[in-house]
Amino acid sequence: MSAEMGTELSTGPSMDSTDVLIVGAGPTGLALAVDLARRGTRALLVERAEGLFPGSRGKGLQPRTQEVLYDLGVLEAIHAAGTRYPRMRIWEGEEPGQEWDMMERSEPTEQVPCAEGWLIPQTRTQEVLYARLRELGGGVRFGAALSGLAQDADGVTATFEDGSAIRARYAVAADGGRSTVRRALGVGMTGETVDPKPMLVADVRITDDAPLPDTHWHVWPKAPEGTVALCPLPSAAGTDGRVFQLAAQYADEAAVVDPSPEAVTELLATRTPLSETHIAEVLWASDFRARAALADRFRVGRVFLAGDAAHIHSPAGGQGLNTSVQDAYNLGWKLSAVLAGAPPRLLDTYEEERVPVAADILGVSTRIHRASAAGTPTRRGGELRQLGIGYRESTLTRETRPNLPDEALRAGDRAPDGRRGGIRLFDAFRGPHWTLLAVGTEAELPPLKDESLREPVRTTHIPPYEAYGRGVFLIRPDGYVAWAGETAEGLEEYWRNI
């Protein structure tokens, strides 16, 4: 992809072509574009807006997502632009009260190097991914509004409002909850309203003399007309001063939310100790109602749904953006492999693996939202970290070891990190390749080769390690154990079959 692809695309009767068309340059589309670019796969990322989304909306990155971003080469920049979550502080009017940790505190371990969620505004996450994409030679065509989509046995044709057209072998809808692509495909969404009360979310810059420290996430649960929360943001590109994310709920279900700067300023002056003079600027604002919905399908022919185009979450628990980035991570290596000659049936496993994950996480987000709305504070941790997500039931998964204890690592699980024999496992896995890992065994390993692999399978030997036990493990490009055995017996057959 060209860094200036926006100027290279033609208009009129001629048609540009690519292998993968990605519609939507949010976190999902950017993560997928980065993954494909590092694999050498031709892809084109288009976005109807004139620039990246400017708000903080999805402001938390869970530990598993941080591991994904390490593999994509951006975790250092992500950590530099963010911070740990602050403690919550409950207020009654102008009086501060109880403090507590919403996010469960946890220290890194050898197996889990990123143990806690990381606070970083969505706009900064996107900027980091976009910079990485440019570094890899890619870019985004902004101002490209999709007007039509058609597919046949050989590919997809997308047309745009400016008269241009693109022909691609595959397309991915990463264009959000109101996905134009999903609607063009006729795919419905099944879901429910999590909370009928409308909400406002905004980024506001406050003056230095405003009576709110940056050290806490402030909540007014008994504010007039509805709960208000102000979370300090660690950075906001292009702004000076202190920036907070405002989340305000309206007690009246029929309330009409006004996201104008004047209305946001008035809301803060009415419901919190801040006065209008403390509000230096409203940087971004939007209204919404909390919903949970799952697309009826994640694939129609050569078109795939990912991120909010496939599943819409309540913001509670910070799961939406994270699940979306991991959709991209699951799909990227499969698209690249099939485009290079792997069996097309490999792409069937995207929907097979990601639909159950999205459905489970929607349930978690909805439960947390309703508990919070009922006045039951819920500490966030454990299942929200997404480290336990796996694909044990996938058709790509083979576990050949008998009589494993319940706590044993199994095929389909996330492959843990660790350092043994001078090797850090996450560094051995890092990159677009498969990894054949021998742990505490001298078992003979077969050569795993395939013309569809852009990168050869890499073989790594380490001493015994309790996180794995002993045996042979084939690690997928997305960091999950695909095959596991006491020896390599049966591995070659598995490899031929997939």
TrEMBL record:
Coiled coil: none
Pfam families xref list: FAD_binding_3 (PF01494), Rng_hyd_C (PF21274)
Gene3D superfamilies xrefs: 3.30.70.2450, 3.40.30.120, FAD/NAD(P)-binding domain (3.50.50.60)
Domain named FAD-binding: residues: 18-362
The keyword Flavoprotein is annotated on this UniProt entry: yes
Record key words, sorted: FAD, Flavoprotein, Monooxygenase, Oxidoreductase
A GO term for molecular function: monooxygenase activity
UniProt KW Flavoprotein keyword: yes
Cofactor: FAD
SUPFAM superfamilies, per the entry: FAD/NAD(P)-binding domain
PANTHER family tied to this protein: BINDING MONOOXYGENASE, PUTATIVE (JCVI)-RELATED, TRK SYSTEM POTASSIUM UPTAKE PROTEIN
Protein name as catalogued: FAD-dependent monooxygenase
